[in-house]
Amino acid sequence: MARHLYLRRRRNFIRAAGVGAVAAGLAGTTSWLGGELEAAQNPNAQKLADLKKSPLSTSEKLNSYKDITTYNNFYEFGLDKGDPARHAGSLKPRPWSIVVEGQCGKPGTYHIEDIMKWFPLEERIYRLRCVEAWSMVIPWVGFPLSDFVKRFEPTSKAHYVEFRTLVDVKQMPGQSEPALQWPYVEGLRMDEAMHSLAIMAVGLYGEVLPNQNGAPIRLVVPWKYGFKGIKSIVRVRFVENQPVNTWQQTRASEYGFFANVNPDVDHPRWTQKSERRIGEFFRRKTLPFNGYADQVASLYAGMDLRKYY
Ligand SMILES: Nc1nc2c(c(=O)[nH]1)N[C@H]1C(S)=C(S)[C@@H](COP(=O)(O)O)O[C@H]1N2
Ligand SMILES: [Mo]
Predict the structure, then answer these.
(1) What pTM value is reported for the model?
(2) Which of 135, 227, 254 to mutate to test the pocket of ligand 1 (most atoms within 8 A of CB)?
(3) Considering its fold, how many domains does the chain have in total?
């Protein structure tokens, strides 16, 4: 970290400490406050209070705030795992709005402050499995994607929902390089989008999302590879035809649209049979649908998942 940034953070930390036990006031409201919480987190971050707990959360050991916010994939800020944490300070998550369009009854431009008031915020502790064969356990804060989708009254022609990330090279300096085609695009089939496990996340560890994790709002689909979890969303479109997502555009032979976690279908560079849980020494076996098979396997009944990878 550049020295001036370090000093600024340090000053802010001292200031935050001075105004009293804000963080302590939250104790007991969320399940991760059990000694696992790193002392400092981000002293500048806004707390998200009154979080509902969810029966869909895992009780596995959480990754630390530090792991989750310093080991990232967000190519708009560079290709190294540490780049997003180093460079995402130029992203301005406020003011922010999402344009909703396509096959729906309520298209329009919606502001993030309003969106965040539409639904009660929940904590959802999920496994995240990247196609690069590493994984983490992350306490997200968000709301069901299904509630968000319903609000816009999709029509009978809305078979898929497509999401796009911001394009602004001033805020996202990595976009000056053709590492990927910009904007980053992702999509879900409508029944996937309506599944109770799919959420829009606006926070983690009880605080608003750090920029590097996709502020102010990103998708989380825990049974799919991490690349489906598109960050910093500015556009949602209801469409008839299956979108071409960014990684499929980049190399369709390696990355598909469905991208369900599947130990039986290897990637040419990474075996998907096992994974490295960040912070652990021994590899773990990868589970079908990232351990969510009981809930989601029926969405794909009759589909050849070797073909629709
Ligand atoms: N816009 C955008 N979204 C993105 C990415 C990206 O490069 N750009 N990377 C994806 C990948 S490959 C992963 S594994 C997850 C990582 O999320 P995290 O950094 O919050 O753990 O974000 C996904 N969402
Ligand atoms: Mo990933």
Answers:
(1) 0.89
(2) 227
(3) 1
Pick the ligand that lies closest to the CA of residue 246.
Answer: 1
**Ligand 2 ion: residues within 5 Å (CB):** 73, 130, 226-227
CA dihedral 184, 227, 174, 271 (to 10 degrees): -140
Domain assignment present for 50: yes
Asked, for residue 309, whether it belongs to a domain, the answer is: no
Ligand 1, pocket-test mutation among 68, 69, 73, 247, most atoms within 8 A of CB: 73
The answer to whether position 305 is within a domain reads no
**Contact (CB, 8 A) for 103 and 197:** no
Q: Using the mean position of ligand 2's atoms as its centre, give its distance from the Cα of residue 74 in Å.
A: 9
Q: Which pLDDT band, with edges at 50, 70 and 90, does 268 fall under?
A: confident
pLDDT at 49: 87
Which CATH number characterizes residue 144's domain?
Answer: 3.90.420.10
- Structural domain for 7, as ranges: 3-300
Tokens of 288: 């079908």
Backbone angles phi, psi at 285, to 5 degrees: -70, 140
Any idea what the Cα angle at residue 170 is, between residues 165 and 91, rounded to 5°? 60
Q: Are 243 and 259 in contact (CB under 8 A)?
A: no
Residue 308 lies in a domain: no
Output the CA 132–ligand 2 centroid distance in Å: 6
Q: What pLDDT, in 10s, does the model give residues 95-139?
A: 999 999 999 999 999 999 999 999 999 999 999 999 999 999 999
